[in-house]
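Chapter summary example: a protein plus flavin mononucleotide.
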Amino acid sequence: MNLFDLMIKRRSVRCFKDTKIPDEIINNLVQVANNAPSGGNIQPISIIIIQKVEGRKKLTEFVGGQPWVENAPLSMIFCIDFYRIKKWTLKSDTDFQGENSLSHFLIAYADLMGAAQNVVILAESYGLGSVYVGSIQSKIDDVREYFSIPKYVLPMMVLSIGYPESIPKNIPKLKHNLIAHNEKYKILSDDEIAEAYNNKYGDFDENVDKYLEKAYIEVIEASKQHKTSWIKLVKQMMKKLEIRNHAQFLFKLRYPSKAMVELNKKQIQAFKNAGFNIF
Ligand SMILES: Cc1cc2nc3c(=O)[nH]c(=O)nc-3n(C[C@H](O)[C@H](O)[C@H](O)COP(=O)(O)O)c2cc1C
């Protein structure tokens, strides 16, 4: 398969076979992460490799019980790592203040995602599947404590990887020419924007099961892999919150706007606990 087809066909995989990934492959995945572009080539990242059941279980707990994290034979915790650089610069009679610099933080997070995405693509080429798990960001303190992560290191993203048991077929996406602007930003009318999202999701389906398959694949997969009927819970929530369209589903139910803003306090505190003072 050529690279374009591989990248167009890639889907986040959440159902894995219980097959160990060979060490040479894991080593190659780490090599491509390390070879990713990095602002100033500073490489402010570390990756914690989790394969043992105990670590997988604990990590699953920290990401809100997403069962694919426990079921994947491999998870990588991608961390912004300023600890190593601070030690090095101190020994070199200078100082690095990444923990106080928004610019260093933003570049480091961009580096981290570039490295992780290199892993996604190489993994795909080996017939592996992967899924990012960003909810680790709400449990930074717990993750740091359990995995012995020192000050100035922030666990920011999990990538769970394994041989796919099943791969989702169709995930709605915006039309690609909508996200590209020629030379100058083209402001769309409200109707054009509404149409773009209608094109992405289709009509809001009265058949909730069909709707969830399209718009919330995580809940379908979680219900298959865990005894809790997440689908039932989501349906109850949809009724209670009177969800009538896709935007309400996303920002009243999945990512409730108020709760997302309130999360700031906890996350800023977790950053402070890790020695970061940027917000
Ligand atoms: C930053 C980021 C965080 C994500 N967090 C989660 C997560 O916590 N759980 C999960 O199952 N998928 C997570 N995903 C995967 C997305 O749900 C997935 O990429 C999206 O539904 C589009 O599907 P696709 O990857 O197949 O194109 C995350 C993806 C990104 C880029």
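Key point: Residues 11-12, 14, 66, 131-135, 171, 218 surround flavin mononucleotide (CB under 6 Å).
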